[in-house]
Amino acid sequence: MDGERERVPGQHLYFTVLGPVRAWRGDEAISTGSPQQRALLAALLLRGGRTATAPELVDGLWGTEPPEAAIAALRTYASRLRKAFGPDSEILVSESGGYAIRIGLSSLDTDVAEQLTAEAEKAQHSGDRVRARDLFNKVLDLWDGEPLAGVPGPYAETQRTRLDEWHRSLIETRLDLDLELGHHSEAVSELTALTASYPLRERLRELLMLALYRSGRQAEALAVYADTRRLLADELGVDPRPELSALHQKILEADAELAVAAHAAEEPSGGSASFVRPAQLPATVSDFTGRAPFIKELSDQLATAEGRVMAVSAVAGIGGVGKTTLAVHVAHAARHQFPDGQLYVDLQGSGPLVADPGAVLGSFLRALGTADNAIPDGVEERAALFRSLLDGRRVLTLLDNARDAAQVRPLLPGTPGCAALITSRHRMVDLESAHLVDLDVMSPDEALVLFTRIVGEERVASERDAAMDVVAACGFLPLAIRIAASRLASRRTWTVSALAGKLGDERRRLDELRAGDLAVKATFELGYGQLEPQQARAFRLLGLADGPDISLAAAAAVLDMDVDDAEDLLESLVDTSLLESASPGRYRFHDLVRLYARACAERDEMPPAERDAALSRLLDFYLSSAARVFALARPGDRLVDHLEPTRYPGLDFQNREAALDWLFAESNCLLACIRQSAAGDTVRRAADLLLTTKDVGESGANSYQYQVAAQTVCEAALTARDTHAEARARMMLTHMYRMTSNFDRADAEARRAIELAGDDPVPGCEAPNDRGIIALYQGRYQEAEDHFRQALNSFQADDNLPGIAGAMCNVSRAHAAMGLTDSAIDLASQGIEIYSSLGLTLRVANGKFALGIALHQAGRYAEALDQLTGALELFRENRQRLWEGSTHARLAEVHLSAHRPKEAALHAEQALALRFVGGEFRRGTVLKVLGQALDMIGQTDRARVCWQDALAVYEQLGNTAHADEVRGLLDPAAVA
After folding, report:
1. Smallest Cα–Cα separation from 441: which of 521, 329, 322, 350?
2. Neighbours of 544 (CB within 10 A)
3. Do residues 552 and 573 make contact, with C-beta atoms less than 8 angstroms apart?
4. For position 276, what pLDDT does the model report?
5. Contact between 320 and 477 (Cβ < 8 Å)
6. What's residue 634's pLDDT?
7. pLDDT at site 793
8. Model pLDDT for residues 231-275, shown as the tens digit of each residue
């Protein structure tokens, strides 16, 4: 029917106009003919099923100068289109002297875009911003370049303008949502490119200022305003619009309103309009008993949070006194006072490996909706972002099992309406403004009630005196009472008197028990004493491992058992509550139980050498498995041939992806094993495990922990006078210091590694290679080549093909820096050829990276971009965020040289957003390039801010040459 679209069911054709005009039947492309024929098709598709008269079509296709046979041409085009449509030719109808195309609602990309936009706007208006953002992204994904690309005629031009404007409007809306949801760093790179493309679009400038400010880049945000004001005055003779000026003033004043909105962490919940906020509190126990005075005291403190900067309560007491249970109970009762969410973390303060505040802040920021690449590196930066995210929100943070006040301080919200509840074995007298609560053991009556609730009134009623003896023997400690009562409840044949007798037997108590800890260990002893011999052995040996948890396969290695038997044994321990099942196939101890298990191992494991043997098997398992990961990731690398022999086998992996999954999943356990094994006759294997897990250090996720492990091995090797292990550890310290731009220390470690290497080819090859990279970064290009040549000779002597290829690629980089571009290109190409022949996906990326640099220096920019883009994809696939960031930085440099400043700025921002670009030196370089790109697109004030930041980096590093280069950018007249 004319004037509205008739929906024809069962159509299989799909058309696109948000890019080239195309037609598809399923996956098969249909020819749409010449540009004029595509113009007719587009004109009919965009009329929504309404009929277009012949004169309208002639005007739309040819304007004021149509050909003489225009009407005939229209008939020809229409006929050809019907023929192309085949069995669906009836969708093109002739009526009233014109034509129409009538298709289904989902048969045209603009229709789909309109439907998705309507859904997105509905979600946005209902408050479901995460779903709205996802839907807007789906809409934007429908665009494929310029709308109606290559289609001629006035009608197409008008529609192109309309669709372009719609596209920009959708992008702005999506970017608004990005900022509301806390994705600031991601938005900066996109907004930088957009403001370069549309310099007079003030809304984009406004969003860029806000994104920069929320990313901690206030000076750049202010510089964007200065650039905008000057541009508007020069181009249009006007001032910025009032909204932009108001934002500028708020940034100057650091207005709290600019902090991340309270809905920054929201997510959709079952399609409803309500926000999903963090709700991380562990479940409260159903049989919670007593503690009324403490509950009131803590609840009253939490109730004052709204009128104070922050309410902090710290609950202290001995292990097992019920600090966590009380805190969780109080926190649940107060949930209604903190409608924006509750955060929880076990800080592991009573164990050997306390939780790192930076890692905890990272998990909190993710829980509040912050993307990984928007999370800063340093603890102070993370803490600042955490406080900003909580500004204006009412969130309760439960910090359980804290070591001391220093661990807690970075984790405190610090904003009105928020509160922190802390538990610790130590009284936090040095925690400012904290309300301290000392939790003592239960009263006898409370203890008896707790015991009765767990065991049952019927069993206790007739043996009340014996029950009182049990809770007394437990020292009225809640944890001890709960464990003892649970054991009794699961054994229907035991009487309360029998349990009392067992607890009353002093021979079953450990001699070293002290005061408050006496009852906890006696209760553990009760559970331990009921274990079968094989269970008891497993309990003792598993407690020796330092990792936060342990996989089934690793546990089987500790116990020297096959996996199936080990699983049965571990699950039986889970049933006794002496071991926890962290997740399928993973197990962990409560920290107190782990300490008790170790005490049992020291007391009962005979012969004592079995303790060392168990840890040795674990080290062998990890080393053998990591060596297989290394071999899969780096086929042909000779490192695996130079490792210490292992007696216990490791895992086999189906493919490289599965191997890498295992490596990164086990990273914390691997690093813990390295630290624990860094002593005596296991220090060499610890050093080898360090080498085979280098991807953990290079990934960026565990770089600091990896460096600590390397330092631990180095110190242990030095103490043991094991120069072999020391050289390998120093080699990896070189690598880590180089990655963080600590070049002087890295070079010193490398020199020492070479001195100690002797006939060990591993540091003999790698340390000179690292020295070459250091010299390359410091501008000592001939020295760099000399070091690379030394490494190349060593790799050749060891017949290490990947090493040879790597050294050739590094010589290529030195030659590129010295202007020897032909040689640089040839060497990098040879390196890639070797890598490819070995199937080295990751190392091919390194080769492409080097070749991209050489091609850049040769002025072959298109080829350089092709190589670097290929490297970027491979680094991303292999989860190498540091190399991913470095490649974005190199892409920025190439685009800058090719006079494509918008693209250069985009890649530079992406490098900074990843926060892994190779240390401060490379960050300074990225800032310098970003400044140059911004200067070329007219954002001169923001460019100066970037250069000033780069100058500060270079001055701090003592890099005079690069500092002078940046000073020249800041003040060209001074250099001239």
Report:
1. 322
2. 19
3. no
4. 43
5. yes
6. 85
7. 95
8. 888 888 888 999 899 898 888 877 777 765 434 444 433 333 233
Residue 6 pLDDT: 40
CB 803, CB 840: distance < 8 Å = no
Residue 350: pLDDT band (50, 70, 90) is low
* Residue 59 Cα distances to 40, 56, 66, 67, 214, angstroms: 11, 5, 7, 11, 50
Residue 555, CA distances (Å) to 397, 564, 626, 665 in order: 34, 11, 16, 15
Prediction pTM value: 0.64
**DSSP structure string for 34-61:** SHHHHHHHHHHHTTTT--EEHHHHHHHH
Side chain identity at residue 850, one-letter code: A
Q: Which of 429, 389, 388 is nearest to 408 (CA)?
A: 429
Q: Could you give the CA distance from residue 418 to residue 940 in angstroms, rounded to a whole number?
A: 41
Place of tokens 């096959």: 562
Q: What are 537's two structure tokens?
A: 């052995």
Q: Provide the pLDDT confidence category of residue 431 given band limits of 50, 70 and 90.
A: confident
Q: With the C-alpha atoms ordered 182, 184, 185, 187, is the resulting torsion angle positive or negative?
A: positive
DSSP secondary structure of 642-678: GSPP-SS-----SSHHHHHHHHHHTHHHHHHHHHHH-
Is residue 692 within 8 Å of 625, Cβ to Cβ?
A: no
Helices 202-214 and 154-180, packing angle to 10 deg:
20
pLDDT tens digits for range 675-692:
999 988 999 999 999 999
CB 393 within 8 A of CB 262: yes
Burial of 568 (0-12, 13-18, 19+ CB in 10 A): exposed
Burial class (CB in 10 A: 0-12, 13-18, 19+), 692: buried
CA pair distance 329, 545, nearest whole angstrom: 32
507-533 confidence digits (pLDDT tens): 443 332 232 333 456 556 767 877 899
User: Cβ neighbours of residue 255 under 8 Å, at least 6 residues apart?
Assistant: none
Q: pLDDT tens digits, residue range 910-956?
A: 888 876 556 788 889 999 999 999 999 888 999 999 999 999 988 88
The candidate with the shortest Cα–Cα distance to 198, out of 895, 904, 902, is: 902
